[in-house]
Amino acid sequence: MTSADTETTPTANGSEIIRAEDLKVHFPIMAGIRRHQVGTVYAVDGLDFEVQKGETLGLVGESGCGKSTTARAVMRLNNITEGKVYFEGTDITNLSRKAMRPFRKRLQIVFQDPYASLNPRMTVHDIIAEPLKVHDVGTKEERSERVGQLLETVQLSPEHGNRFPHEFSGGQRQRIGVARALALNPEVMILDEPVSALDVSIQAQVINLLEAIQEEFGLAYLFIAHDLSVVRHICDRVAVMYLGKIVEIGPRDQIFEDPKHPYTKALLSAVPIPEPRGREERGRIVLEGDVPTPVDPPSGCRFRTRCWMAQGICAEEEPPLVGDGHRAACHFVDSVVMPPSVKA
Hints:
Elements: E1 16-31, E2 36-52, E3 56-60, H1 67-74, E4 82-87, E5 90-91, H2 97-106, E6 107-110, H3 124-134, H4 140-153, H5 170-182, E7 188-192, H6 200-217, E8 220-225, H7 228-234, E9 237-242, E10 245-251, H8 252-257, H9 262-269, H10 276-282, H11 312-316, E11 327-328
Parallel strand pairs: 3-8, 3-9, 6-7, 7-8
Antiparallel strand pairs: 1-2, 1-4, 4-5, 9-10, 10-11
Helix pairs in contact: 3-4, 3-5, 4-5, 5-6
């Protein structure tokens, strides 16, 4: 491993485990017989965030805003166009496959679709034991014992190891995915919309399981979701994404009770409130127009084409994330108001 492989960021601190700095992931658009590039998809375009040890950072936003691409970039499953990703201060952005191998044990992911993320030709035992085998951990007997322990950890019976994925429900399959991610005793788990494909009644069970596992093993979570009710329940801090950018980030309660960015206000206005009086007092912000394409994003502030507060500066200058702890990227962050016509 070269000295470049072990570069350490001066901004790392004792409690920080993941840091992304100006993270960008761009995908070329190819066309023609000779497959020449005709455009670029700016899927993730300059993210800055950190995850502390033992905390849960929620990453929220509309479908297509770049949440899953961010997760795959942090995992080094997607190539990073620009920027850096640090793991406990070590730059892992450009590590070779061999140099990245030790970090694979410490950084695991649970995918969104429990139906597609498990090999249908393998038994549950072999699926969970695979990472142990790949990393040459333990003997065959020790790996089998570990699989049984992991199945019990995710509240399944060790006898289930002899079955195939198609014999389980969606919630049980997601538990198997969690068990596989836990096999190598990771320190960070990236949860890419782990409950969005499940029934509501099963979602609560899986969320409770994830909370129990986090408390037992001291894990840090990067929790990606679009269900803000789930995010409010499980996350310590929240980062709001829009069209490849983080527009607001801060402690959960501050984000939900005192949002600073217009887009965050619009998102939260759509969260169901059980009390009719609460709905009337808050109102509902209905955004006009469609989300711009990431192939040709707007200049300046990317939300300006749908923002009721947009002015000339919004098209000319990109607003930075400002604030201490609770940060928002808006030129009018201190004077964000509700739109004049809010639907109750």
